[in-house]
């Protein structure tokens, strides 16, 4: 037998975990210690290649890792202990699954001989997280650990990205075994996501695009996930075809908001022109989006006259909600490249002047109109001011969930991908602040702003402490309407204005709260003071809680009442009581 | 503001349901069955029958046969959702191929005396059910066939003293020389 004591690949499970992180290029992880991960923390202590950011709640670690991932295109990594540490990860894992964010979570587990005994801080972590991960593993043998960790990174980042979890019992962390660097055979042979699109389908798609009279491109988060090449090709396709383009919430930034073909976001709170173009188009090209119910509205009235092309890497996205005519399965970037090549060789720019004229008429409705005031800050105005003040700066925006999130999507113009981090699929209040922590860790010199709501921000406020500890100068820009505004809006529109439990009673004094954390607190009430305060926020090189007091009862429009079609939008100028009642009559929406 | 009218709006779909038998080849590893079943419960799909066993021990392959019902769109979703699970190698819609044989095995316990016993045996013979246990007042029959045949046999046994049934669920395989 050979002497294994000098074999550098012989190491403990805990050491393998740190080694695998290094081998996968991980430089920062977010975590929280506990009994079942102490061996891993001991290894972390004794090295300096991987920086560990200590959060204040495991949910914060998960969202921080998501923010890190979305702003870099690299996987985010979280480390949590067994039992409550793992259960606190359920929300961010689900969030990452819904929004296709590559996340690798490593959780500690009780020693293998105690599994099933209701041991202290035991829970069935792989059972609990099975439906909220792309895949998960319980590692019972230290000699399987390297393979599983490498596979975990591959699964998280390839195909449709998503969260994975590796559960490692404490005895496996202590045990010694053989490590190996990543290799191809680490991956299940059954897992082979398709990258290249079918050539015949691509030809069909090009034929449809070339013959379109009223085309629209509808792009989504998949384009951003696919990487910089996909964004470049999408922009080129818009240029070459001259087609109008809209995007989902998740896809903002793939096409620049200042681009001349930009229609604005589509969907429930999308622009009139985007939704009308979707409804009336004759050819729809959906790239990396999934016909979510917030996008389609009423499905049987969704874009009734169009031929639909759908590019998606996940075959289960095809025909899930909407029947499409030309599905193309594969990577967006790859397929956009092929489409462009065929289009440029065989087709010419379709003549769609009439269509653009029609769109101009819809644009003229000015669906994002709101009435400014000299006495009170309108939330839309606050976002516009923030946008103006940060224009041209190296800025990343995260959000919480609610009206402020939709106003941010409507009024903040994104020019580049990876600059916009928001919880789209799951709609997780409390996402934005820890996500900002993660973004700032990845981009220490950039301006990172969480556009927040007064209710959401209290869900993960404790991460201000993390920001202060690591000197992360995140800016928490709270549109404080003293309501769960989005809930109040639905109650007003759909439940007879019975504002059941949607008032933010007993709000903390955010300025004092900031100071208590050792951060900076700012507050504004008057529109005249807003720009100055925003400048102050930007120039402070410390974390800031910005309490922006805004009009309490402002509603977010335009809006497609759920269960209605795209052409049944409610526009702001029509949103008087009578029209609102009519738009929502015939029944309240279920979702 | 006016009160919104009536109940919440519910969209109904009226596509007819179909029954399909799916053969799913998976890596035989801990939790794989839980993943497949969790998919069905989590997404609200039906399971009419489920059979699972390791079929190739060296390669750690198991075969899961699932009989499910749904609209054509839902059936397509089920197949795609199964196919994208990491340990799933292949999903074959045995119903769509129209070239598959389906069998189920049932053990059926019947209790009775006198005329009933004779009638029971006569019917069992007609269905090619074998007696695998007998006492002076009972039989256990083993019967294989497609689901309809077994249902029919069980219905016939009911008035004759049916006590208990144990069924394996459906196993399916394609006709001809080709493998899956
Ligand atoms: C964790 C979680 N709980 C509940 C909800 C439901 N919800 C959606 S928006 C919202 C209100 C958000 O209020 P606030 O953060 O003040 O934002 P605003 O709408 O006022 O801008 C609630 C409760 C949610 N999205 N997430
Ligand atoms: Mg609010």
UniProtKB/TrEMBL annotation, chain A:
Residues 202-337 form the Thiamine pyrophosphate enzyme central domain. It catalyses: 2 pyruvate + H(+) = (2S)-2-acetolactate + CO2. Residues 11-127 form the Thiamine pyrophosphate enzyme N-terminal TPP-binding domain. It is an enzyme of class 2 (transferase). Keywords: Amino-acid biosynthesis, Branched-chain amino acid biosynthesis, FAD, Flavoprotein, Magnesium, Metal-binding, Thiamine pyrophosphate, Transferase. GO terms for molecular function: acetolactate synthase activity; flavin adenine dinucleotide binding; magnesium ion binding; thiamine pyrophosphate binding. Its EC number is 2.2.1.6. Pathway: Amino-acid biosynthesis; L-isoleucine biosynthesis; L-isoleucine from 2-oxobutanoate: step 1/4; Amino-acid biosynthesis; L-valine biosynthesis; L-valine from pyruvate: step 1/4. GO terms for cellular component: acetolactate synthase complex. Residues 401-548 form the Thiamine pyrophosphate enzyme TPP-binding domain. GO terms for biological process: isoleucine biosynthetic process; L-valine biosynthetic process. Belongs to the TPP enzyme family. This is Acetolactate synthase. It comes from Bradyrhizobium nanningense.
UniProtKB/TrEMBL annotation, chain B:
Residues 21-96 form the ACT domain. Signal peptide: none annotated. Belongs to the acetolactate synthase small subunit family. Its EC number is 2.2.1.6. This is Acetolactate synthase small subunit. It catalyses: 2 pyruvate + H(+) = (2S)-2-acetolactate + CO2. It is an enzyme of class 2 (transferase). It comes from Bradyrhizobium nanningense. GO terms for biological process: isoleucine biosynthetic process; L-valine biosynthetic process. Keywords: Amino-acid biosynthesis, Branched-chain amino acid biosynthesis, Transferase. The lineage of its organism: Bacteria, Pseudomonadati, Pseudomonadota, Alphaproteobacteria, Hyphomicrobiales. NCBIfam families: acolac_sm, PRK11895.1. PANTHER family: ACETOLACTATE SYNTHASE SMALL SUBUNIT, ACETOLACTATE SYNTHASE SMALL SUBUNIT 1, CHLOROPLASTIC. InterPro entries: Acetalactate_synth_ssu (IPR004789), Acetolactate_synth/TF_NikR_C (IPR027271), Acetolactate_synth_ssu_C (IPR019455), ACT-like_dom_sf (IPR045865), ACT_dom (IPR002912), AHAS_ACT (IPR039557), AHAS_small-like_ACT (IPR054480).
């Amino acid at each position: 037998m050979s002497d294994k004591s000098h074999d550098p690949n012989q190491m403990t499970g805990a050491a393998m975990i740190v080694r695998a992180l290094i081998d996968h290029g991980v430089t920062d992880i977010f975590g929280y210690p506990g009994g079942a991960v102490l061996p891993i923390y001991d290894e972390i202590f004794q090295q300096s290649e991987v920086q560990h950011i200590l959060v204040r709640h495991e949910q914060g670690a998960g969202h921080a890792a998501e923010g890190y991932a979305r702003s870099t295109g690299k996987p985010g990594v979280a480390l949590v202990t067994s039992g409550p540490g793992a259960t606190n990860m359920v929300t961010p894992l689900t969030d990452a699954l819904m929004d296709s964010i590559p996340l690798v979570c490593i959780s500690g587990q009780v020693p293998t001989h105690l599994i099933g005994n209701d041991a202290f801080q035991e829970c069935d972590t792989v059972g609990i997280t099975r439906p909220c991960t792309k895949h998960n593993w319980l590692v019972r043998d230290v000699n399987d650990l390297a393979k599983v960790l490498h596979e975990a990174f591959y699964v998280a980042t390839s195909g449709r990205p998503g969260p994975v979890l590796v559960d490692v019992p404490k005895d496996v962390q202590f045990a010694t075994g053989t490590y190996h660097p990543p290799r191809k055979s680490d991956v299940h042979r059954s897992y082979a996501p398709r990258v290249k699109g079918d050539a015949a389908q691509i030809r069909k798609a090009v034929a449809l695009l070339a013959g379109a009279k009223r085309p629209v491109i509808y792009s989504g988060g998949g384009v951003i996930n696919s990487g910089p090449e996909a964004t470049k090709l999408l922009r080129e396709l818009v240029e070459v075809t001259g087609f109008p383009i809209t995007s989902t919430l998740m896809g903002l930034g793939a096409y620049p908001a200042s681009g001349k073909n930009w229609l604005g976001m589509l969907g429930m709170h999308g622009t009139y022109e985007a939704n009308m173009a979707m409804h009336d188009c004759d050819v729809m090209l959906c790239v990396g989006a999934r016909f979510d119910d917030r996008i389609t509205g009423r499905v049987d009235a969704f874009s009734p006259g169009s031929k639909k092309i759908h590019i998606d890497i996940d075959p289960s996205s095809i025909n899930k909600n909407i029947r499409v005519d030309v599905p193309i399965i594969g990577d967006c970037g790859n397929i956009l490249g092929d489409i462009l090549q065929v289009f440029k060789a065989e087709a010419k720019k379709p003549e769609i002047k009439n269509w653009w004229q029609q769109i101009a008429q819809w644009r003229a409705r000015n669906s994002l109109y709101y009435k400014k005031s000299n006495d009170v800050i309108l939330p839309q105005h606050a976002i516009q001011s923030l946008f103006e003040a940060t224009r041209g700066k190296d800025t990343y925006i995260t959000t919480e969930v609610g009206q402020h999130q939709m106003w941010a999507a409507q009024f903040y113009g994104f020019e580049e991908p990876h600059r916009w981090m928001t919880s789209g699929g799951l709609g997780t209040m409390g996402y934005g602040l820890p996500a900002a922590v993660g973004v700032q860790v990845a981009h220490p010199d950039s301006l990172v702003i969480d556009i927040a709501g007064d209710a959401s921000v209290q869900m993960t406020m404790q991460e201000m402490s993390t920001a202060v500890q690591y000197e992360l100068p995140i800016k928490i820009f709270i549109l404080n309407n003293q309501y769960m505004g989005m809930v109040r809006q639905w109650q007003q529109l759909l439940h007879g204005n019975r504002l059941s439990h949607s008032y933010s009673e007993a709000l903390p004094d955010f300025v004092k709260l900031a100071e208590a954390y050792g951060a900076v607190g700012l507050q504004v009430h008057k529109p005249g003071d807003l720009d100055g305060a925003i400048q102050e926020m930007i120039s402070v090189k410390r974390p800031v809680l910005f309490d922006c007091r805004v009009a309490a009862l402002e509603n977010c429009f335009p809006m497609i009442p759920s269960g209605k079609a795209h052409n049944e939008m409610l526009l702001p100028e029509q949103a008087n009581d009578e029209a609102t009642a009519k738009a929502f009559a015939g029944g309240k929406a279920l979702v | 503001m006016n009160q919104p009218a009536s109940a919440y709006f519910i969209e109904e779909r009226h596509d007819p349901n179909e029954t399909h038998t799916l053969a799913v080849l998976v890596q035989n590893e801990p939790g794989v069955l839980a993943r497949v079943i969790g998919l069905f419960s989590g997404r609200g799909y039906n399971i009419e029958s489920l059979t699972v066993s390791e079929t190739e021990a060296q390669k750690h392959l198991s075969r899961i046969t699932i009989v499910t019902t749904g609209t054509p769109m839902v059936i397509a979703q089920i197949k795609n959702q199964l196919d994208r699970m990491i340990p799933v190698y292949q999903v074959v819609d045995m119903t769509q191929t129209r070239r598959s044989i389906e069998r189920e095995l049932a053990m059926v316990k019947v209790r009775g005396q006198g005329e009933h016993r004779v009638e029971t045996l006569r019917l069992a013979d007609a269905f090619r059910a074998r007696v695998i246990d007998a006492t002076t007042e009972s039989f256990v029959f083993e019967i294989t066939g497609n689901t309809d045949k077994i249902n029919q046999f069980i219905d016939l046994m009911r008035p004759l003293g049916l006590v208990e049934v144990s069924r394996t669920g459906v196993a399916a395989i394609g006709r001809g020389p080709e493998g899956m």
